[in-house]
Amino acid sequence: MQIGEVAARTELSLRTIRHYEEAGLAGPSARSQGGFRLYTETDVSRLMVIRRMKPLGFTLDQMRDLLDVTDRLDADGDLDPAERETLLERLREYEQAATEQVGKLRVRLARAEDFADTLRTRLERTATAVRP
Fold it and tell me: Which residues form the HTH merR-type domain (predicted)?
């Protein structure tokens, strides 16, 4: 698929997709004869991993590292048991970091919802106090 379809499916801008390509995180698997970027489902999956990591505060280097870990685990045939366990431990660390960030975001969301409720209550109270 071409970059426009990838952008629609991932909800990432063309510019962001190109940025991730330039950063070496995810790029097209091929190019058409006309030079258009051509993406596979695997490429889209990589972009979705990146998209999910971004709001959790992961850096580009961390994204690159996690993608490397998952790529190496997916190509399992070449791994010895010690290397496999090392990669699994790194994956566990990312899962733990993601879980911690989700918890922090839940706290922030609860505070934001509480604030919005406070404003809504204030508006309702003020609106009813002004009515004749």
Answer: 1-69
